[in-house]
Design brief:
The chain is an alpha/beta fold. The protein is about 40% helix and about 20% strand. The protein has a seven-stranded mixed beta sheet, with helices on both faces. α7 links the parallel β4 and β5. α3 runs parallel beside α4, α4 runs parallel beside α5 and α6 runs parallel beside α7.
Length: about 220
């Protein structure tokens, strides 16, 4: 996990942020509070949040899905980019972490756009499928427990519409995916999913080397 883009020398990275990042003050405040959290490494990089917000605007997305909320930075970045009628179904299991998120969503005036579901994401996504919401989401962001990444990908692939986009975070896994000596379960799960998506003719894909690696999978018609 990484809350900054990996592999860029410090001075260049600082320059990059100085001329590339347009971070709303409310997102800065949330990022700074999260930086003090013991699990701060779960926070996405601000440049990644900005990039996803741009994708949502380019797609003119209105209905989005998020698997893994933590303190709500990515949710807030996307919510701010959505039109007034836009919605996010946000999945997480932690009341503690999402309590921080709720404060900032409320302060930003976007809480009405966010349908937070506190339950295992596998169950929430299955409910959405059972409720007939297949092919109705414009955008999905996956950033939760790595052991279920393949399941989340398959469920998201059902839920997004043809031409919809799935974004999968942490596909570099701190560089461990390229280390042959790294054989722990989470690393192997991400390796397998990376290979699967690379060969998956159901999607058009691109891996963007931002933050900890972000795979974009566009669902084909």
């Amino acid at each position: 996990m990484a809350n900054k883009t990996l592999g860029i020398e410090r001075n260049l990275y600082e320059y990059f942020r100085s001329i590339a990042l347009r971070e709303p003050e409310i997102l800065t405040q949330l990022r700074q509070e999260t930086a003090k959290h013991p699990m701060a490494n779960m926070q996405i990089a601000p440049e990644q949040g900005q990039f996803m917000a741009l994708l949502v605007q380019l797609m003119e997305a209105k209905k989005t899905l998020e698997v893994g909320v933590f303190t709500g930075y990515s949710t807030l970045a996307v919510a701010l980019a959505l039109p007034p009628e836009g919605t996010i179904v946000a999945c997480d299991i932690s009341e503690e972490y999402t309590a921080i998120a709720r404060r900032y969503w409320e302060k930003a005036g976007v809480i009405h756009k966010i349908d937070l579901r506190i339950a295992p994401a596998i169950e929430t996504l299955e409910q959405l499928i059972a409720q007939g919401q297949v092919n109705t989401f414009d955008f999905a962001f996956i950033d939760a427990d790595k052991s279920n990444y393949d399941n989340y990908y398959e469920q998201a692939l059902q839920l997004v519409r043809p031409g919809g986009l799935i974004a999968i975070d942490n596909v570099f896994w701190g560089g461990k995916v390229a280390d042959p000596n790294a054989t722990d379960n989470r690393t192997q799960v991400i390796r397998r999913l990376n290979q699967k998506i690379h060969q998956d003719d159901r999607v058009t894909m691109s891996l963007v080397p931002i933050a900890d690696g972000l795979t974009l999978a566009l669902k084909r018609g």
